[in-house]
């Protein structure tokens, strides 16, 4: 099951989070007993567990469940994978797109598993750089391809809603292994995804 069902929320964690969210709501100057808010601590507790469920998932296993022997040895690109993560400094969302490519070395992976791996690492407290690196290293170590590339373009709510309050800046991070360290291969990948990069 890729996402937790209602029944799967850990009761003890939900209760602890509920208690703490109630205090937060009160400290912020709201009445936690107000009709519209009385269930908010529980809703927030579940929302935060959903958004951080990646800690309990194993990306390597997800990939290994759908790896197939195949002689195809050209570049495979999956682009425009939407992602939602939480910045570890402010616990505010950052969101954007991931573009992934790999060059198989005897085995391919089910395409849907690439976005699943993105979610496993995105659904935690993260920085964009480590998110990029986590995805890259997981694919490299598990699939053992001839090369792998990850580009992430994201916007950070902590830079939009507060702090410097810049609405139009976006951050691009990238990582390359194996054949993508060669400039021609890297350029071919960047060209294939370029319509999505500003
Ligand atoms: N490198 C990196 N920085 C991030 C990411 N998400 C948020 N940040 C930054 O983390 C930094 C934390 O800096 P601090 O000075 O400790 O926090 P702050 O006073 O709230 O900073 P401001 O956002 O500038 O108000 C900020 O510059 C954020 O923009 C990320 O994914 N990668
Ligand atoms: Zn932040």
From TrEMBL:
Positions that bind Zn(2+): 87, 90, 158
Classification via Gene3D superfamilies: 1.10.286.10, 3.30.1130.10
Entry keywords, A to Z: GTP-binding, Hydrolase, Metal-binding, Nucleotide-binding, One-carbon metabolism, Zinc
A GO term for molecular function: GTP cyclohydrolase I activity
Pfam families from the UniProt entry: GTP_cyclohydroI
Residues in GTP cyclohydrolase I domain copies: 20-193
UniProt catalytic activity: GTP + H2O = 7,8-dihydroneopterin 3'-triphosphate + formate + H(+)
UniProt family annotation: Belongs to the GTP cyclohydrolase I family.
Protein name: GTP cyclohydrolase 1
Species assigned in the record: Autumnicola patrickiae
């Amino acid at each position: 099951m890729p996402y937790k069902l209602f029944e799967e929320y850990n009761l003890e964690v939900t209760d602890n989070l509920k208690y703490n969210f109630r205090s937060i709501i009160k400290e912020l100057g709201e009445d936690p007993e107000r009709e519209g808010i009385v269930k908010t601590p529980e809703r927030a507790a579940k929302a935060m567990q959903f958004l951080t469920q990646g800690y309990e998932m194993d990306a390597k296993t997800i990939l290994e469940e759908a790896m197939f022997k195949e002689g195809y040895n050209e570049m495979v690109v999956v682009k425009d994978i939407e992602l939602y993560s939480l910045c570890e400094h402010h616990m505010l969302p950052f969101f954007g797109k991931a573009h992934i490519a790999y060059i198989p070395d005897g085995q391919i992976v089910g395409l849907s598993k690439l976005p699943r791996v993105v979610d496993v690492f995105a659904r935690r407290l993260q920085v964009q750089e480590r998110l990029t690196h986590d995805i890259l290293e997981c694919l490299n170590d598990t699939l053992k391809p001839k090369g792998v590339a990850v580009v992430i373009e994201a916007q950070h709510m902590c830079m939009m809603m507060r702090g410097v309050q810049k609405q139009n800046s976006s951050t691009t991070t990238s990582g390359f292994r194996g054949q993508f360290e060669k400039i021609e291969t890297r350029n071919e990948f960047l060209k294939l995804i370029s319509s999505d990069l500003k």
